[in-house]
């Protein structure tokens, strides 16, 4: 389980808050031959972020639009949240079948300027 504070720290450490990076979902699935391993199954850009105070979550969403969430749009509003909100859980809605998915890790692709939030499907 990852929280807003984890995201902020990782972005600072991995990419130095570089604003041009686009936030994407990295899809991982269990290896059929070895259930202890995860296999990369692709990625997709994230289109929307919502801070939900009721559920205490930061939700990333894919809506199929051309909108792309960048680090420059994501991080500044998070930095002004109070300490309680820093412990909101990171969740993702990919589609109807895969909604409210837990973000399990972070990554980056420096060549393509992508910051990746990994989920297990």
Structural write-up:
The longest helix is centred in the first third of the chain and has 12 residues, at 4-15. By secondary structure, this protein is of the alpha/beta class. Helices cover 17% and strands 40% of the residues. It has a seven-stranded mixed sheet with strand order 2-1-7-6-5-4-3.
- Low-confidence regions: none
For the secondary structure, the number of strands is 7
N/C terminus separation: 15 Å
Percent in strands: 35-45%
Helical fraction = 10-25%
Mean pLDDT: 94
Structural class determined from secondary elements: alpha/beta
Shape: globular
Q: What Rg, in angstroms, do the CA atoms define?
A: 14 Å
Q: Spatial order of the strands in the main sheet?
A: 2-1-7-6-5-4-3
Please give a quick description of this structure.
With 121 residues, the protein is an alpha/beta fold. 17% of the residues lie in helices and 40% in strands.
Layout of helices and strands, plus pairs?
Blueprint: H1 4-15, E1 22-30, E2 38-45, E3 48-52, E4 57-61, H2 71-79, E5 89-93, E6 101-109, E7 114-120
Parallel strand pairs: 1-7, 4-5
Antiparallel strand pairs: 1-2, 3-4, 5-6, 6-7
């Amino acid at each position: 389980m990852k929280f807003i504070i984890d995201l902020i720290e990782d972005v600072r450490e991995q990419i130095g808050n570089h604003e041009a990076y686009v936030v994407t979902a990295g899809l991982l699935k269990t290896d059929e031959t070895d259930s202890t391993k995860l296999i990369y199954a692709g990625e997709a850009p994230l289109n929307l972020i919502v801070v939900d105070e009721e559920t205490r979550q930061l939700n990333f969403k894919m809506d199929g639009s051309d909108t792309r969430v960048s680090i420059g749009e994501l991080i500044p509003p998070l930095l002004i949240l109070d300490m309680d909100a820093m412990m909101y859980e990171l969740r993702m809605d990919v589609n109807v079948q895969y909604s409210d998915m837990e973000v399990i890790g972070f990554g980056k692709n420096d060549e393509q300027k992508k910051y990746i939030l990994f989920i297990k499907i």
